Predict the 3D structure of the following.
Amino acid sequence: MSEARDIILGRICASLSENGKAGGDEARHEEVEKRLRGHPQGVVPHPADAKQAVVDRFIDKAQAAGATVEKAKQGDVAKAVSAFLRDHNLPQQLRVGADERLEQITWQSRGAPELLSGPSDGNDLSGLSHAFAGAGETGTLVLTSGPDNPTTINFLPENHIVVVDAQDIEFDYEAIWTRLRHKAGAGKMPRTVNLITGPSRSADIEQTLIMGAHGPVRLHIIVVTG
Amino acid sequence: MVEITSPHFKENAVEALSDENLQKAMRHLRGNFTAKRAAAAAALPEFEALRDNARDIKNHVLTHLDLYLEAYEERVTAQGGKVHWAADAQEARNIVLDICRKADAKTVTKGKSMISEEIDLNAFLERNGITPVETDLGEYIIQLRGEHPSHIIAPAVHLNIDQVREDFRRAHSHLPPDRAMKEPESLLREARGILRKKFLSADVGITGANFLVAETGTSVIVTNEGNGDLTQILPKVHVVIASIEKIVPTLEDMSQIVRVLARSATGQEMSVYTTLSTGPRRKEDPDGPEEFHVVLLDNGRSSMIGTEFQDMLRCIRCGACMNHCPVYQAVGGHAYGWVYSGPMGAVLTPTLIGVDKAGHLPNASTFCGRCEEVCPMHIPLPKMMRSWREREFERHLSPVSYRSNLKLWAWFAKRPALYRPLAGLAMRSLSLMGGRRGRFSALPMAGSWTKDRDLPAPQGGTFISQWRNKRGRT
């Protein structure tokens, strides 16, 4: 291993043992192993309004963060996507990955959007993704990378439409990590996990908040309710 | 090189106070972040409990840092990434350059990173024929101006829109001169267009990290613009530069701190993009970088463990302390003379560049305590500033007049029978001299104080005499 590695780890150990904080080596190892394996939860916020359903909370929070949100039945997703493009005077053309759930959408025979598959190269006006989950706590979408949902679609097109199943919406992030571990395996992760809360923005000029910085200008969420 | 002007803090501050552009820009800051932070904190009933837990998590990490770093490295390696260790800034710069050269890089896009500033990476890459392009809007603006950030999360907060407009006119001279540039929106669009091309053509993308998760070997960035993401998913090589204390054990631990980060920084409940990156692209992935490198920087941090400055390693760079600091609000970030400013800079800078150079910074505090009050990680900033003052005094670095006056005062203070009547007399005379206004606009030997503000005249007797009169009642 590198010299710098030994120096840094050596200095840390020296600083810790000088102050008697290092303790028994075995006990320290055990404590670290226990935490990494057990991943204790800490303080998990509860919904302030217990009566509000998690999905409604998700919608409220996502809207507060500047996203537009609509609920749709599985059979109406195609209509909702087309309507969004039409309402914003966008061409009926979408960049989309190989997500099965998106492939199952039945597009209308007339005026269906043209689907361009694969990652975005920066020339797409609109992209369509399917979220892995949503967090009602803050109206946050969770997207995982892969051939199903290439990460470039989340950032390059100006308009990002994201479909999320209502049953995949949890209240807190912790519930989502549990599901992610189940999917990817303990200690493993997809290359990229994107937590997205509203469209991109900047306040770097005189603290004036402007929507649409380097990422999407519009984020439209379709919550599938069955 | 970043010129260190911290030894001239006093001159810098005087200049900043009379800089009209700066003072105009700082007015946008005052009250903005503070009100938003207060509202966000109040809206989350668990906020205080989360702060406590966030502090405890980092304390736990710091006393097990060697083990968590090893665990992190093991996970990164297992997923195809590479961890590089850098004991100091020079090593870190060389590692990054080496990676860039192997990738035959000409252009490097960059997400916002304070570590990049700390190791002065941009100037180094330029000297070696590689063009670094800052992509965060604020960072892009100050790179055009040849400046450094004046705030951790709002790097261009010291500028007004007129200045930005002029910079864009100068730098984007290929665009039509009569284009729309009045509104901030049009300037943002312009930067978006220019930077989009840079994102797509860069050979290497360099980002910082808000967290390194040991459990999964994941590095995490938190942004609002999406520039960090385009920086790290488009080029074929992604380099993360992060300091060793960015480690958190698990995704759950990260979530605890994420919940206090944006609320303390911008008052958002959650930043727009929290992105977790683990290793290079997988076999089946259609996008993402082919190489994933992490440069772990120590640069003096390991020696802070076990000292009275260890708590500073809990800092998550939210900027709340500077947003709430009356000194920062008055003079801005550049007066602090190096990379880090405000209260966190006043504590961290002396540890990184030496108290002999940065001794003025911990002195530039009113000790109002707001920084500690709002710090999401409960860092005792005023206490640590006091520790620096003590060290500065012990090392005879403070001015002779200051030291001799303090000694004179201490001589009297240790002799209460003499000190009390004298203090009472001084007080009554000052009170009389202050007259009906009760303030001094000029006072002998306090000219530099009264130049910019009045000194209130003492009123109502000394503390001891009031204590006696009230017999301990409040």
